[in-house]
Structure to design on (136 residues):
């Protein structure tokens, strides 16, 4: 019986360590790296869209942030957020929003493009976009 208790304790300790470490690494990489499919078309170097996940469930909402090249919230005050299908056709537009936006995904399962377009002072303007997968 002692062997079983030791074995179970060791398994529980390993599982706890796994979840703690995996959560730590997810937290660290999520805030330090722009997603690999993040696209940039603008005159403001380094802007990117950030979301914790690249996948969401049908009918759910997902939070997005636009950051500048220094890793801070982008300072432009008005953004137009757009949801498009993979052919570039507009599904839904949200005008005059902030660099932080919660977009609902009331669409069929599949892949979609989320974009945030902004206009700043001087010559700083453009849009950033990334691909999101919606599951059932």
């Amino acid at each position: 019986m002692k062997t079983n208790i030791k074995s179970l304790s060791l398994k529980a300790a390993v599982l706890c360590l796994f979840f703690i470490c995996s959560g730590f690494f997810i937290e660290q990489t999520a805030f330090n790296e722009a997603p690999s499919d993040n696209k940039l078309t603008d005159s403001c170097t380094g802007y990117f869209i950030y979301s914790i996940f690249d996948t969401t469930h049908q009918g759910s909402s997902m939070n997005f942030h636009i950051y500048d090249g220094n890793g801070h919230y982008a300072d432009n005050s008005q953004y137009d957020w757009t949801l498009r299908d993979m052919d570039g056709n507009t599904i839904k537009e949200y005008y005059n929003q902030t660099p932080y936006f919660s977009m609902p995904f009331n669409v069929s399962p599949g892949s979609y493009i989320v974009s945030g377009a902004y206009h700043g002072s001087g010559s700083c303007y453009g849009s950033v976009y990334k691909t999101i997968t919606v599951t059932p």
In short: Residues 1-33 form one domain. Residues 17-38 have pLDDT under 50 and may be disordered. Helices lie at 2-32. The radius of gyration is 20 Å.
